[in-house]
């Protein structure tokens, strides 16, 4: 007898809309005691490393025959969620004893010059695939605009706006981490890895992957020019408003930040000063957003301008 486990939504610790938690899995596993076959019906864009690793460990220890299929058209199967602490995406089949990983969407030779080691290259490919491919499904308008903007940008600094914006909407953990750095920048010029880890741990707890994830994000921000190394190894200087660009690109990034934010609407002054946008110089005025079809701007009492994503743009 076969028991179907629907792994639908992001892998999370706490139950929310469109999530699948470890408790959900344990409930299904308990219900499947009499079944010889567990079939994983998977439709997910990613999740937390601890949840994924625990699920995989329990599957391997169950002693049952395990099969898997995909509910979504992109044929996503989850194997090892270790990219930025939020998601590694692979295609393949989970069996009782092994996880088979075929060729990925992005060819390894595109990053072989900058990332060494087969495993490191695979993880980097997975992250890039999630950011630049999977966002076509989760945030299609933002993704389409990024692809249209990319060939019009002449410098790596300008293209960073696109990569950063897509990463914000793809990885909530990334947004939390850069927001923590931005908040720290309001009182401090220097951060340490421990400061950011402690801030994130206050919300998520001391997860096994948290330290590695924060370190990878800090390394990326340093490589991008949003942080700078200092003479002390663990210290980094926060580089505020280091990147400038056209109003159209600024507006696109603001739409990404608003899409990724847990609030549906944000006061304009708060939007342009969101801590997660600390590396970027935002010079737009509220009238520019009023003219932009991406946004709806509503004037409220006391002259407060509330900004939300336009319904037609979601």
Topology record:
Elements: E1 2-8, E2 10-12, E3 19-21, H1 22-31, E4 37-43, H2 49-61, E5 65-70, E6 77-78, E7 89-90, H3 118-138, H4 140-149, H5 156-170, H6 172-184, E8 190-192, H7 193-204, H8 210-224, E9 227-229, E10 235-238, H9 247-260, E11 265-267, H10 268-272, H11 286-290, E12 295-300, E13 304-309
Parallel strand pairs: 1-4, 2-3, 4-5
Antiparallel strand pairs: 6-7, 8-10, 9-10, 11-13, 12-13
Helix pairs in contact: 3-4, 3-5, 4-9, 5-9, 7-8
Structure description:
The longest helix has 21 residues, at 118-138. Strands 1-4-5 form a three-stranded parallel beta sheet, covered by helices on one side. It is α/β, with parallel strands linked by helices and 314 residues long. Mean pLDDT is 79; it is low at 72-116. It has a domain at 2-108. The N and C termini lie far apart (42 Å). It is globular and about 60 Å long. The protein has eleven helices and 13 strands.
How is this structure best summarized?
It contains 11 helices and 13 strands. With 314 residues, the chain is of the alpha/beta class.
Helical/strand content category: alpha/beta
Task: Show unreliable segments.
Answer: 72-116
Count of individual beta strands: 13
Q: For the record, give the distance between the C-alpha atoms at the N and C termini, rounded to a whole number.
A: 42 Å
Features:
single chain, 314 residues, alpha/beta, three-stranded parallel sheet, three-stranded antiparallel sheet, globular
């Amino acid at each position: 007898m076969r028991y179907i486990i629907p792994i639908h939504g992001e892998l999370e610790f706490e139950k929310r809309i469109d999530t699948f938690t470890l408790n959900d899995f344990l409930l299904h596993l308990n219900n499947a005691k009499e079944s010889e076959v567990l079939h994983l019906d998977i439709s997910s864009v990613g999740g937390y490393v601890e949840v994924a690793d625990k699920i995989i460990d329990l599957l391997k220890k169950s002693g049952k025959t395990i099969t898997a299929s995909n509910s979504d058209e992109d044929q996503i199967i989850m194997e090892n969620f270790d990219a930025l602490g939020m998601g590694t995406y692979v295609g393949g089949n989970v069996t009782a004893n092994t996880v088979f990983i075929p060729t990925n969407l992005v060819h390894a030779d595109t990053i072989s010059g900058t990332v060494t080691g087969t495993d490191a290259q695979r993880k980097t490919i997975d992250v890039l695939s999630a950011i630049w491919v999977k966002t076509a499904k989760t945030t299609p308008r933002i993704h389409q605009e990024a692809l249209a903007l990319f060939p019009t940008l002449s410098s790596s600094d300008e293209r960073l706006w696109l990569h950063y914006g897509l990463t914000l909407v793809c990885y909530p953990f990334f947004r939390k981490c850069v927001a923590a750095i931005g908040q720290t920048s309001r009182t401090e010029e220097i951060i340490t890895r421990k400061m950011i880890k402690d801030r994130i741990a206050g919300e998520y707890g001391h997860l096994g992957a948290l330290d590695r994830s924060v370190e990878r994000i800090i390394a990326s921000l340093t490589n991008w020019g949003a942080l700078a190394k200092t003479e002390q190894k663990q210290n980094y200087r926060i580089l505020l408003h280091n990147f400038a660009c056209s109003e159209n690109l600024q507006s696109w990034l603001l739409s990404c930040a608003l899409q990724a934010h847990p609030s549906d609407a944000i006061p304009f002054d708060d939007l342009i000063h969101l801590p997660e946008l600390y590396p970027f110089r935002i010079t737009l005025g509220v009238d520019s957003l009023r003219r932009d079809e991406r946004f709806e701007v509503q004037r409220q009492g006391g002259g407060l301008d509330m900004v939300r994503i336009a319904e037609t743009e979601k």
